[in-house]
Amino acid sequence: MKHVVSSALLLGLSSLSLAAQAAPIALDLPAQPLAASLEQLQGASGLRIRFDRAAVADRRAPALRGKLEPSEALQRLLAGSGLSGEVRGGDAWVEAAATGAGIAPGDSVDLGALSVVATQDPATTAITEDSGSYTTRAMRTSTKLAMSIRETPQSVSVVTRQRMDDQGMRDLNDAVKGVTGLTVQQYGPARVKYAARGFDVDNIMYDGLPTSISTYTQDVISAADLAMFDRVEVVRGATGLMQGAGNPAAAINMVRKRPTQDFRASLQGSVGTWDRYRSEADVSGPLNSEGTLRGRAVVAYQKGNSFQDHVSSERGVFYGIAEADLSPDTTFAIGASNQNDNRNDNWVGLPSPLGGRHLDLKRSSYYGADWSYWDTDTTHLFSDLTHRFANGWQMKLAADKLWARINMLGLYNDCYYSTTGCASMTQNPGDYSYTDDHDSYDAYATGPFQLLGREHELVVGASYRQERFDGHGGWGSLFNKDGTPTGPMDPTPWAPSSTLKPRLNTRLWGMKLAQEQKGAYLTTRLNL
């Protein structure tokens, strides 16, 4: 059945539950036959819903997602069906709606053909797309229970789709810069680290499945383009329940866009300074007449230069997902994404003299080579299977496979220091390649249970993930175009085209890393 959790405190206490039948319940019902929706509402709410199966046999109910009182949920399911519902105590009756004077109770009413068009109300879901909001009604990053920000027992933030669009956020770096308590530490033109509470963030989550971004792997995995995502949820502090081992910094959970019940398409473009151009296309909707098969595709492309001379970048993004209702209670989704980034940045910034003062150089100065590159490619393949039981419980299986690659060839600048500071600058070439593969799996069940005369909520699950990193590279000498070795460089007349592209031994250095984590977790919300 489609579903039942609201908010929770990790192994903690919540507010007093006074009126169980009238209390709002969290629902996640698909567009489906009306009889199935009524049965699932009955299981989630505890109401005894009485209806004539023959009267509802040919009628469908719209999708219903969010936290609603049972009576309101019943009215929404019956909207447009020609039927009415009435809740009396712990029972509810569904019967034909009166159509005018002269129709006595119990008389049959010919309703004719009915057409039901279901639209999702984003205000009642965790989805932020089309909500126009800078917040979300529920998030699961902290405990897997759908809690509002107010009810979550940790410091949390969310960057919604509306905020991304309003503030022109393009990738995860932009989103992290806009989150309270998180910082983006730039230690090279293409190298960043995220930090919170004095620790580096060493995991990024995709739909709740963690991926490591430790010392070397953070160079490999690109800052994800936000065109693919509905929102970014952040939990500050330790989140070992969902992430396993790691720093007590923060959990960053990137929640992907999902297919919509209705057809929609959008095309966006932007132009910026330094010849920056970007375009996005997003198409989503049903793939069959019943709406039980849905799909979505997103593509994005951007290209531009920089405030630094001779520096440019290019990005291509593809994201696709298909979602199928295998039955009224079972939904399967599978998708893939690819992001390719190509840059010709220098690896590091400029050295600084003794004492920490800056070199007297222009902001636009570039002391790399015209043959430098920093190219990354990140591919995800993911799927999930959700089944909703009639008793209000839900089970979900999820998997994410990531392949990431980086190839980099470039220069790093250094100083020979004297007692007075930087005596001379030198340039050193390097050629490196890294690969980083991740597998992440998660299975959990969640739902209500009865104890001491009250209803409580529980999540129980298990997770497994592994990572395999392989890097190698080398360094060597740099030569001028005439074949002579380069010596100390003069930064004043520097030309990026003045050196030959080196051929380096890329097996002078190598590193292999492997890690594996297995875990089990339990979360409960107790109503006392």
UniProtKB/TrEMBL annotation:
Alphabetized PROSITE patterns for the sequence: TONB_DEPENDENT_REC_3
Origin: domain of life: Bacteria
Gene Ontology cellular component terms for the protein in this record: cell outer membrane
Record protein name field: TonB-dependent siderophore receptor
All residue ranges annotated as the Secretin/TonB short N-terminal domain in the record: 47-97
Keyword Ion transport assigned: yes
Keywords of this entry: Cell outer membrane, Ion transport, Iron, Iron transport, Membrane, Receptor, Signal, TonB box, Transmembrane, Transmembrane beta strand, Transport
SMART domains documented for this protein: STN (SM00965)
Membrane-protein topology: Multi-pass membrane protein
GO molecular function per UniProt: siderophore uptake transmembrane transporter activity
Family: Belongs to the TonB-dependent receptor family.
Pfam family, one: STN
Gene3D superfamilies: 3.55.50.30, TonB-dependent receptor, beta-barrel domain, TonB-dependent receptor, plug domain
Location(s), subcellular: Cell outer membrane
